[in-house]
Write a structure and sequence with these properties.
Layout lengths: L1 E6 L11 H4 L4 H11 L4 E6 L3 H13 L8 E5 L8 H8 L5 E5 L21 E4 L4 H14 L4
Parallel strand pairs: 1-2, 1-3, 3-4, 4-5
Length: 149
């Protein structure tokens, strides 16, 4: 099984950025926890602060078939969740399930953060579970795809 985790802008600062909202665990710690829980799953991780790079990864991984062995994508688009029609369109074209993850509950945040352009094109959404949402996203993909192999 192969799952990609894609993080958008400012998520390279997990563990250091606004710990009251995003917690104190780094993405490196989160990835180690996921790998310990699922040692047979190959995790591919990418983070970018640039919208076009995220779009390229979604296309490469989920749309163009260059990675046909990929079982799903866990995506935290960060601020692009609320602004990027282009990233939404790339996700809509994905041929593998995309799970939208948000560390915080975006519906309980500032008005401009309450709308996700991604939710209606993602297979599943997890929000407000802290960084454990990444593990939950991986688990969701495993459960959804394990019967298809």
């Amino acid at each position: 099984m192969r799952i990609a985790i894609l993080n958008g802008p400012n998520l390279n600062l997990l563990g250091r950025r606004e710990p009251t909202i995003y917690g104190t665990r780094s993405m490196e710690q989160v990835l180690l926890d996921i790998q310990r829980a699922y040692p047979d799953v190959y995790l591919e991780y990418h983070q970018s602060n640039h919208e076009g790079v995220l779009i390229d990864w979604v296309q490469e991984l989920g749309v163009l078939g260059q990675r046909q062995e990929l079982d799903g994508i866990v995506l935290n688009a960060g601020g692009y969740t609320h602004t990027s029609v282009a990233l939404r369109d790339a996700v809509a074209c994905s041929q593998v399930p995309v799970v939208e993850v948000h560390v915080s509950d975006i519906t309980a945040r500032e008005d401009f953060r309450r709308v996700s352009l991604m939710s209606d094109v993602c297979a599943h959404t997890i929000m407000g579970h802290g960084v454990d949402g990444y593990l939950e996203g991986v688990e969701w993909i495993i459960k959804q795809t394990s019967g298809n192999k």
